[in-house]
Amino acid sequence: MKTNISECNGCGVCIDSCMVWAIKMDEKHKAERDELSCMSCRECENVCPKGAISYEKING
Ligand code: SF4
Ligand code: SF4
């Protein structure tokens, strides 16, 4: 999964949606995820008003 940095407007909606606090703002005010904390619930993907968060399968 990844965040489309050019689409992210730093609204913070995804941060509030994450139940395990796996998302924070980086120094450029873009959402950044801690992959180790993330449980892959996809809630952040659902709530992002910019569609900036997407999940991609790697290696099938
Ligand atoms: S909800 Fe989307 S646009 Fe808002 S901070 Fe998160 S990734 Fe960026
Ligand atoms: S997929 Fe779920 S656990 Fe992972 S960052 Fe998004 S809201 Fe948090």
What does this structure look like?
This protein is of the alpha+beta class. The protein has a single domain (2-54), classed as Alpha-Beta Plaits (2-Layer Sandwich). 17% of the residues lie in helices and 17% in strands. It is built from two helices and four strands. The chain has helices spanning 13-17, 43-47, and strands at 2-3, 23-25, 31-33, 53-54. Strands 1-4 form a two-stranded antiparallel sheet. The chain has a two-stranded antiparallel ribbon with strand order 2-3. The two termini are 13 Å apart. The model has no long low-confidence stretch (mean pLDDT 88). One iron/sulfur cluster binds next to helix 2.
* CATH T-level fold name: Alpha-Beta Plaits
Strand content: 15-25%
Give the end-to-end Cα distance, rounded to a whole number of Å: 13 Å
Largest sheet: 2 strands, antiparallel
Task: Compute the CA-based radius of gyration.
Answer: 11 Å
Identify every distinct bound molecule in the structure, by name, code or SMILES.
iron/sulfur cluster
Helix content: 10-25%
Text of the CATH class: Alpha Beta
**Helix and strand pattern:** EHEEHE
Count the E strands. 4
Spatial order of strands in the largest sheet: 1-4
Mean pLDDT: 88
Q: Provide the structure class.
A: alpha+beta
CATH architecture classification: 2-Layer Sandwich
Which regions are unreliable across 5 or more consecutive residues at pLDDT < 50? none
Count of the separate structural domains: 1
Helix run count: 2
* Outline type: globular
